[in-house]
């Protein structure tokens, strides 16, 4: 089926670092090791902003003729775009926010490849090397602001949420915006867009003109979660693990809205880090919240955490139902404690170097059938490591649901099989089943076929 498309030629606005001929060639290299395919996929996702596709494979198949190339001129570069989704244009002209996002994609794909992945200076086999790489990618993107007091709230939650949950996330964002709190999300629709939308109104009422709406994504998920147009700072991290680390090192507190497997993955990630003995005394406000209709959702999440990670994990977060103002006040107070703690230790406000993140949370986890089968899901290990393995299990489910490579692997080899102790598998199966029943795995109106089988 043909879809409305537009051809265009665009120049960067502002200062995008001028690319060398070697960098341009690297982008144009369509071979296996080249950057072109990643760049094309991310660029198409950015141009698809506002559409209802949350399937990376479907997006690429729908716009097979889409092509983007870099034209090098003596004065710099232009992007030659063929077959772009018409949704990105108004009266034939590209929407300015989408224009900015395209060049953010170009900046990060080139920088990460040249300065991080292919740079022996970063030992990506070691914890310190990975943390350093995350810092450099964020600094290059201009999102680390040294002169600001802590005020960045990370908002997590599903891309597939109902209208009531979306409106609630907007109200929470509004209350936080009124209190001069900025918003960072995974940059997509649903619970990632709602808080940003609310905060823009809160900031406007307070005449705060420098509101930050930071979106952090990665190439595997960007097609399912096209950056929403409110995002005014976009960063593409190389993989989900570095994306998660970027969230917790730049954010000063986290609010979790209802979601599906990806939200469960995020919850397990932050709890696993906070449960590390070295982080016991580090203040980190963490609030789970939703409207009254989401109460049962958080009862299930809370029960799952109790059954798998235990009461200590439960002590690291608060659940607030149907009270946006209280959520905002809780975040404001929690971030004040973060500021005092960092100030007392002369720590940076803009990057949380002090948080200990175990290698198990940093090492990229390719969700292959073999890796999913071999996950270590048993109680006989430190609780923060169990959280790391559980996170990987949910990460695999996300890949099978919406990521192009995961969808193709499921089509080829069948379901992912998840094994483990019965006292872990039972609660996990129940939680995933509740996500399916509540339509949290795919956007509304799309049938969901499970990509996994839990084996008890």
UniProtKB/TrEMBL annotation:
Catalytic activity entry = AMP + H2O = D-ribose 5-phosphate + adenine
MF GO annotations: AMP nucleosidase activity
Please give the superkingdom of this protein's source: Bacteria
Give the organism, scientific name: Duganella rivi
Enumerate the spans annotated as Pyrimidine/purine nucleotide 5'-monophosphate nucleosidase N-terminal domain. 9-115
Protein's recorded name: AMP nucleosidase
Single GO cellular component term: cytosol
Upper classification of the organism: Bacteria, Pseudomonadati, Pseudomonadota, Betaproteobacteria, Burkholderiales
**Can you give the residue ranges of the Pyrimidine/purine nucleotide 5'-monophosphate nucleosidase C-terminal domain?**
335-455
What EC number(s) does this enzyme carry? 3.2.2.4
Which InterPro entries does the record associate with it?
LOG_fam, LOG_family_nucleotidases, PpnN, PpnN-like_sf, PpnN_C, PpnN_N
A Pfam family this chain is assigned to: Lysine_decarbox
